[in-house]
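Q: What structure does this chain adopt?
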Amino acid sequence: MKSRILARRADEPSADREESDFLSLAQSDALDRAAQVVAEAFLSGQSILLVGRETADHALAVATFFRGMQQLAQAMRRTRDVVTTKRGSLDQWTGSFSLAYHLEAYNPVVGETGSKLDEQLLSTQPRIIIALDPLNGSVEQMRKVLAGAPLVQCQIVALRSVSACVAESADLCIAPSDKTSGGCGRKPLTLSALIHALALKSRDCSVNSVINHPRAQALVAQLHAAELESNESLVALSMLFDDMPMQGHARELVKSGLGRINKGWTLQPRTSHSKGALSYGLRALLTEVETDFPYKARELQVHLGPFFSAVCYAGEASTLIDCLLSHDRKTAFDKAAKASLVKAKTYFPSLKHLEKFARGTALRSDRREASADRVCAAGPQALIQESSTADDRLLPIIAEQRHAECGGTQMVTCMVGSDHQRCFVRSDEINVSDALVRASYVVPLALDGVPFRADTFSGDIILKSAQASLLKNTLQEFLEQQSPEACSGQADMPRDGKLNLNQKTSALALWIERQPWGRGFPEPVFEQGFFVRKGQIEMESHQSLMVDDVLQDRNVLSGEGFRLLWRNSVHPGQVSIRAGDRIFVAYRLKVQRNRTANDVYGEVVALEELNTVTE
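A:
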């Protein structure tokens, strides 16, 4: 059954395992050279500055790189008795390795904030600048600032999640290979995955640099014991927040990251933190969003993703980074509580928040998915632009409402001042953040040095009125390049057949629970006929049915019975299922944990009452 489920989703093991290895997607000469430069700066105690924007992926990328380099520094400190002895020394290792970051904040609702990047460049005098998805012209601006400080000999490394559309002026430009991008603006790696690959390569370069030391064996052992692989949990979160297709290397990374998080949750906090399974900060954030254990890909995407986006939207990404990097449990929980308070005060569109605005109709996910399917089935659609004279703070609400009603890609604009427009883009068809990064090479989206704000599903921009139509045309071209199958993200997957009595087990249910289901890799749905032994109503809204299997010869296969739970099925327009009825059900296999055992049941997706059951 497991093999059949994976085969239906085209997830059979590849003959060439390197094709699914994310390091092979990041492999390039630029990555090797950048890793060597980072290793030299690390060993000689120089400084590195990361520059990006207040987005969830950029915040996770900063936390991933900081954790990786701090783990290497701790490994070097553990070898202090080896580094400086009569048998040899590493004179270039000073132990004062410096890391800093600067994320540009942007929130049109609360007003623009001036950039402090110039001051930080002159004060820190970094040896390396790692620019995360730099906008067109931002690298040149940094070079102008550094030109006023001739003592600063700095190398600028551009880290890109999408391919550059113009010649990059950085010393090195690292971008993922597009051989498995899959269309629809999808990229093979997130920024967090790329910077994780850079940290791993930097560890290898550091190992090569100390190979001639008299105590090289001890040094190399300590550097390899730094456990940089523990940062895969943050990489997994970045891929979930970016709504990447759960196939190939992405699925393997997410599965590994989720495994570390769930394993760490079962350990004591101090033990889990020290072993790198689950840090204090990530534990505190999981507690704050009230997600239930065991943690699954869909739940983390739904609960933790909007949390990160809202905090970054408020310009408080540093709170999340400080929380993730905290080595003290109380500090981590204090930072998580502060982030939760910021999220509660932040104006940011969410489904719960917008239900009352959608003409009294709840924005159900199945309705939105059906709308997106209709749009993609008809081919690429034109962007729908609506101008409003209302307060520009209502633009996200209007865009979300129109997206819920019409689907597609929505672009809502409003005049701000005399010659500027605020644009809000909402889409499930394309990665809005990637689309705006590419559009930034054609349209100047960084107004007065302040960049746009964007995440996977929405983007917020202020630009000159004359550029609004150019932005719309650029996004339209990006949308037209995508295939309908990739846009929907949900191909017409066949149902996974029926389950026999000996297959409705906790072993299969737990295996399904552990898999990272997501875009392009939907959770299994089984379908078969049942005979209702008895039914009852639970919590005044759900129907609980005890059923027996119906064989192809229409005979009933009696046994201990199998429980089906049909959620939210008790309402005036729905007929109750009674004992003796024959039904045809599509359901998901779930597990319910008890103190003594794990019980399996079926969560009804669709149910049809039949007089005769045919399969």
